[in-house]
Fold this sequence. Notes:
236 residues, alpha+beta, DNA Polymerase III, Chain A, domain 2, Proliferating Cell Nuclear Antigen, 2 domains, four-stranded antiparallel β-sheet
Amino acid sequence: MSKIIETLGVVVEDARFDFGEAGMQVRVVDPSHVAMIQMDIDAAAFDAWEIDDSKLGLELRKIKELVSLGAPTDMIEMAFNAESGVLTLNLGKIDRNIRPLDDSTMNVPTLPSLDLPCKVKISGADFSQALKAARQVGDLVNFSIDANTFTVHVQGSTDSVTVAFHKDELQSLECADPARSQYSLTYLVPMAKVFGPLETVEVGFGENYPLSMKFSFNDGAANVQYFLAPRVENDY
Length: 236
C-alpha cells in the first residue's frame, strides 16, 4: 500500500480509487495539468480481495499516516461500509475510520493515447541516478536519443551534467529518427524515488512529445504509466 500512496503522492494530494472485482484503477492529474498517472492494480497484488464495484475519493495523507506507523511487512486491512459511508483501515490493533471525499467533484483525467517514436528500457537505479545528478545543476532536463544512444543532459548557469547510455548499456532502445525534448525535473526527481529500486523503467518520448514512463511492482500485479508534458523552447 505504501508504494501505491507514494507513487500517487508525486502528483496529487487526493485521488479517486475505482474498485472492482478484478482489482483497482486510479487516474490522477496534477493541478497544473502537467503530469498524469494511470495506475492499475490487479487483485492478485493483495493478500485478500473481496469488494463490490465502488468509487472512493481518498486523502492520501491520511492513508500515509497510518502506513507510517507500521513495518514494511505489516498488513493493512481496508473495509468500506456502504451504509455508514466510512472506510476503516486496520493496522495491528489500530483502527482508523475515514470519511471519503465527494468523488463526483474530483478531476479524473482522460489519459492520452500516444504512439511515441522512441523508447528505451533502462534499470530504475541507472535512470534515477541520472535524474538526481541532473537536478544538482538545473531545473530542466534535455532527453536526446538516436539509434545508438540515450542521453540525459542539463545545462545550468555555470555547470552542466551529461549522462549518456549506449544501447549496449540499456535493456532495449528503439528509435528510427533522432529526437530531443525537455522536461521539468521538479516532476521527475520525486518519481525517481519511486522507480529507483525497480529492475526496469520504460521511457518513451519524441521531438517535443510528452514523456511516458512505465513501470510495475508487486511481481507485475501493479502497473503504472506516468505522463509528463514537455517544456517546448525555441532555443534550448
